[in-house]
Specification:
9 strands, rod-shaped, alpha+beta, three-stranded antiparallel β-sheet
Length: 285
């Protein structure tokens, strides 16, 4: 029985001793509370002790941490509205003040978000969109960081950076811009089509004109060649027939007969003694 009592007592002592110990590593800092009230802060690493059941330990990170902020719609100095998606980086410098004002690392967003968004609205409300798109935005962001850091001192944290991850137009503005861009592209397309039709008409009219001129010139050349040919033929006929006038008269008579008697069912009422039949009578000889 004594052995069991001693074993039970030793086990209880072991549990109490185990519950009284805790370890603080290099990246942590600790606030020890007794019945909910802070009693001491531990920033150095190592093995530490507390009163079991009465004291509890809250661990906080020493490292640089990030907080994602809510998207905010801001009116810039040039009256343009944009959506700002920002984030901040902070470090817990006073764990006791942080524990009393924030409570835990999960509560940082709740306390820091309105401060950052208010500073963003204040500072960016005095600059234009061109400032955010140029290198001068660095000074604006530094001003926001300083304002936020000043306000965050009361939370026991040091805000080392505030950055804008991206900026975008509000949905209604984006839709309006898309419609305007589509309208502009449609207008440009109509202008290009109209210009293409105009150019096509100019090309067609020019081609028709050149075609008409070419045909006219060709017809003129044909007529000239025909005239020159006929003139040359008449000249040859004249030279040939001038050598034998009787043969020329006989040839002309034959041409007249061929022309006169060529149509079918032709009827002539001519005297047989007419000169028209001299060639047939042999009077041309």
């Amino acid at each position: 029985m004594n052995t069991k009592i001693v074993s039970a007592a030793a086990f209880v002592v072991f549990l109490v001793f185990k519950e009284s110990m805790f370890t603080v590593n290099q990246i942590e800092q600790v606030v020890v509370t007794r019945l909910g009230e802070p009693v001491r802060v531990i920033k150095n690493s190592g093995l530490r002790f507390k009163i079991p059941l009465l004291e509890t330990v809250a661990f906080f990170d020493k490292r640089l941490m990030s907080v994602e902020l809510s998207a905010l719609e801001i009116t810039l100095g040039d009256k343009r509205r944009i959506m700002v998606d920002a984030f901040g980086r902070y470090r817990i410098t006073d764990p006791l003040k942080f524990y009393q004002s924030v409570g835990s690392e999960n509560g940082v967003l709740h306390r820091l978000n309105p401060v950052v968004l208010g500073s963003l609205s204040s500072v960016l409300g005095g600059v234009g969109l061109s400032t955010l798109l140029s290198d001068t935005r660095i000074s604006a962001m530094n001003k926001i960081r300083d304002e936020v850091n000043k306000a965050a001192k009361g939370f026991g944290i040091d805000v080392v950076d505030v950055r804008i991850r991206k900026t975008d137009l509000p949905p209604q503005n984006s839709e309006a811009i898309c419609k305007r861009m589509m309208s502009e592209r449609e207008r440009e397309a109509r202008e290009l089509r109209a210009k293409g039709i105009e150019i096509a008409q100019v090309i067609k009219s020019t081609a028709d004109k050149e075609n008409a001129i070419a045909i006219s010139e060709a017809d003129t050349k044909v007529q000239i060649l025909i005239s020159e040919g006929e003139l040359e033929a008449n000249k040859i006929y004249s030279e040939a027939f001038s050598k034998d006038k009787e043969f020329f008269a006989f040839f002309q008579s034959l041409e007249a007969y061929r022309t006169a008697f060529n149509p079918k069912n032709s009827t002539f009422v001519i005297s047989p003694k007419s000169e028209f039949f001299n060639a047939m009578k042999g009077n041309h000889l």
